[in-house]
Give the backbone structure.
Amino acid sequence: MLDLLPDNCTINAIAYRKADDVLVVGTDSRGVYMYHRKNLTTYIPSVEGTLRNDAYYAQCLLDSTTLLTGNSLILDTKTFSVQASLPKKINDILLATDLQGQVYYTKDIRLIKYNPLTGKEIIIHQEAAFVAHCITLLDSTIWVGSNIGVGKVIRDSIQWVHKTTFKSSQYGIKTICKDHEGNLWLGSYFQLYRLNMSTSKLDSFPALTNADIRDITLIRNKIFIGTYGNGYYVFHDDKLTPMPKGRKNELSNTHTFIDDRDGYLWMSTNRGLYKTHLDAVDAFLQDTTLQLDYYAYLEEDGIINTEFNGGCSPTHLLLPDGRYSLPSLEGLVVFNPRYTPHYFPKDSVVIEYVEIDGQRYRPENLDAIAANHSNIRVYYASAWWNRPTNQYVYLGMDDPDKSYRLSDVNQSAYSLGHLKPGNHTFLIRRRSGFGADDYVYSKLHFTVEEPWYARGWAISLFFLGLFMLTWGTSVLYTRSIRQRNILLRRKVDEQTKELLASNVQLEENVNKLAKTEIHLRKNIKVRDRLISIITHDILTPLRFIGQIARLGTEEKPTDAGLTKRALTDVQNAVHKLFHSTQNLLHWVTYHQESFKTTTINCSPFALVEQLIEDFSEMSRFQGNVLINDVPEDDVILTDPRILTIILHNLLSNAIKYTQHGEITVRSRIEHQWYILEVSDTGRGMTAAQLEAVHDGTTRHGEISVEDLTAGNGIGLSLVADLVQALHGRWDIDSPEGNGVCVRIFISLDSAPKV
């Protein structure tokens, strides 16, 4: 140790600081020197007379005293001295030992089992396209990951549990892990997979697409995933969480995970060995806004080259004495977690002075800060006897739970900028351990003054001036308003009189225009309906009579039967024309508001009986039977003339659309209604025709020569209007193919107005 001191120097003092495990040596004029204990050891085994290879990858135990490295060296597990070497070269990336001490390695396209005691080799698998990328012991079974699938070694052969297809033999399954539910986790050069062993379902994780998976380890029922370039992740509660990569992304390349069973997690990387507490990991998984800090072990701790090797199987080796061996680019790094402590500073950070707009103040001499300041800058010192990498200093202002930020290792000042008036607290906390509350704090309390315009006297003066200004303005304004109101009142009175006169005249004109508009709309409606009615219900019978007359002039009347039928058709057409004209007259009268109602006691039976007699000839021509099923003693208070017109139209329609059937008129009383029902057994109506009737259109559309009686648009329209004149209602239904039933509802409680 003295060899590290300068030549020709005198030691004046020696002190040991147990809290940091640091030995301090003071010299006369050559400065102060600090010595740190190296708790890690790097071994670089070599064989005399052979080419030295300092880079190490895979390792496996042969027995309790020896281990085998990927470069074919057999080493002592305590001293790491070379005991022997294999006579042949093997793949230095993949090694595994089963429970019987058999060694598994690969060579070219072969997976080989080797017995160290007998030297016997057995080829487990050989295939032209086969390249193994992982060999590992899980649940007492050797598992193999390759470019063609994942399988386990059973009776010296591979039993494949999942086949894969990679674009090249250079790609394959390079790490395998089994979780507490029995799922198999697989890592490749560009994806993470989860294989359900019960259902064979394979899940992938988009967040890790194109990620080079280096290691998968189950710790505390959580899956830890290390990658090359993407940091490390933890899968827990069905959620994949990216973990912090360190202050300067030191954990971007994470090769292995070690649970030391004392609550700490160790990770080898390309930039050293890092350690954190598993409780802190759990807390971060619950709340990712929390800080997760790491303790670094670097060259000063005994590591020759901090670039550890990964991508091999296994990524680390647990030795029988509790130590771990980690492969690196320069040798094997060996350490015992239990005897590799960490040292965090125990003293709080010292706040040296505060600079306000270039003027410096000691914290104890800091008076209230003027409100017009531009910038406040706090200078602090965080001296420590250990390396700065493992010092975590956090800065916060007023609300530290939300505003703590990690300072740079070389940072010694923090700018607060301009602060609003009030009481403030600047906090500096330094991590003193891995616990959630392991911090030492420094606090700076200070006050920023209110600006002069926000002080009490200034506010009082402002409101007094505002009051006087408001009062003076109010007095002047009141006088002006009073004068203006007098003039305005006179003008308002004059204009009000004019507006009242104009309003009366306007209301009279509006009423006249409204009545004129109603009258015009009604006349237009009547005109349109008249055109429609004349087109269908009058012109069509006339056209038909004209056709019969033309046929009569062209044909010789030799056939008496033909002549009789023609005359009968003419008679029916004339009858149709008569009723259409009569309906037209009634409809026009109704819409010209000259249709008056007269209510008297009348017998519905007598009205129906008279109509049956009127339609007897037409009914016989159609081969129909008319039935009056209205009780003879029924007497109602209504207008018999209007009721006769309604029944006349309904019977006429029923006879027209029924052949060789029955038309029945019946009545009944329901609640306050007297109901007259006209039903037939004719061809009925479709749903579209019923909808057209309720919309006020014709029943069957246009009139044809073959069915002269088809036009009845005026009839049903008249029925609807006349039923309304009787303060009644009507409805119609027709089960298709089963005739039509029309019901007229006449109120028994009130008669129509005379």
Remarks:
- Confidence is low (pLDDT under 50) at residues 697-712.
- Residues 85 and 124 are 23 Å apart (CA to CA).
- The first strand starts at residue 11 and ends at 17.
